[in-house]
Amino acid sequence: MLPLSPSQRRYLRAQAHHLSPVVMIGDAGLSPAVLKETASALKAHELIKIKVMNDERTEREAMLKSICDTLKAAPVQHVGKMLVVYKAAATPVIKLPR
Fold first, then answer.
1. What are the sequence ranges of the domains in the chain?
2. Residue 82 host element (H or E)
């Protein structure tokens, strides 16, 4: 996982507030197809929201950890069924504070 400082995490949460989910994880769970779609969304947008259709908090936390570990991304936020993930592009568009 990519490490973020608390100020960077706070900045990214504020940037993600107005975003709509671009990836949805349904009853099938975290499949390779979902991971592939998440990777392409991160490559295009750097900061994305993921909506998880699962009622178990521990399973959603495991999905967030798995996504971040697999894609070398940073977990920004987990509120309810919404996950926010960040991964800097080769030429970053989002400038993070120090």
1. 6-86
2. strand 82-86
CATH number for the domain formed by residue range(s) 6-86: 3.30.110.60
Judged against a pLDDT cut of 80, whether residue 2 lies above it is answered with no
Q: Which residues pair with 50 in a beta bridge?
A: 23, 83
Return d(Cα 75, Cα 13) in angstroms, integer.
10
pLDDT tens digits for 32-70?
999 999 999 999 999 999 999 999 999 999 999 999 999
Q: Which residues pair with 86 in a beta bridge?
A: 47, 74
The answer to whether residue 90 scores a pLDDT higher than 90 is no
Structural contact between residues 73 and 87, judged by C-beta atoms closer than 8 angstroms:
yes
